[in-house]
Amino acid sequence: MNFSNAEETIKELCHKLYSIDSPTGFTDRISDWLIHYTRELGYDSYRNRLGNVIVPVPGKDRAHSVALSAHVDTLGLMVRSITSEGYLMFTTIGGPVLPSLDGEYCRIYSRSGKVFTGTVLSLSPAVHVFDDANTRPRDEKNMAIRLDEEVHSKEDVLALGIQTGDFICYDPKTIFTESGFLKSRFIDDKACAALELTLLALMREQSLTPAHTTYICFSTHEEIGYGGATLPDALDELLVVDMGCIGDDLNCTEQQVSICAKDNLGPYDYEMTSRLIDLSAEHGIDYAVDIYPHYGSDAGPMWRSGKDTKAALIGPGVHASHGMERTHLSGMMAALKLMSVYLGI
């Protein structure tokens, strides 16, 4: 596979994916866009009832089937209640690092279709007013959304059409630096979704056929723990493409692809993991092997659902996961190359 234009394609796709708010449970728009984009490339993609987008790619050996899967659902918030002063109390979707959200701009999607803006704030937001402005906990009980509307009561907010259960999407703040870093929220896992789309685009442009029947999957419920249970049945292998972890007692950097040997559920398939290590060494791909103690992927719910499928996990190294995340184009390219050689293209 020729990767000469891959970095620019990755950048373009990242900016597009991050421009579409898609917390778990609010993924219809990104699923619709994925269907449109992949069909424009010429693939016969489809969407299941839960929003997963599946792109079948015929292979040379149709008796064996493999899949790549990245998730396009993200962390988010939802309106839990409205205070008497007109602030929105929230509940989390997935596990964001809440202190990192203090001061972030956000959008509130009402069920009427109107979108409002606001800011995530501590309930003690001003040092000139509150003695505990710097010490009050940043959690669901002590943070709220300040609406950019003239509201002074719960009734004022309800009159706008905002209600309990409305989704709150905070700004990903996506940028690529001149030094090659991708800085954004939700690199977990839209960066890997961009890699899958780049792979599909390169296969089509270069008329490449994978070694086996292949399904490129985009799951929509990973952040709440069951995305893998709704992937296609009867797969021989699943390669989960998700973020690699960086931090205490880990080897991976942002410039590498991480191969996960074990997460909090247990070991990934030994043969698949060994094959990925061997492929990386053979093709000069910069990689690290790590164990993630506080991590689960789409492989876990797939196994719990009873699927008889081998699985392994790779992804570019990502710093500050579930907060203000960062990775590097070289790590993304290493992951893309390993995805390619795994598929035999």
TrEMBL record:
The keyword Magnesium does not apply. The keyword RNA-binding does not apply. It holds the Pfam family Peptidase_M42. Keywords: Aminopeptidase, Hydrolase, Metal-binding, Protease. InterPro entries: Peptidase_M42, Peptidase_M42_aminopept, Peptidase_M42_dom2. Belongs to the peptidase M42 family. This is M42 family metallopeptidase.
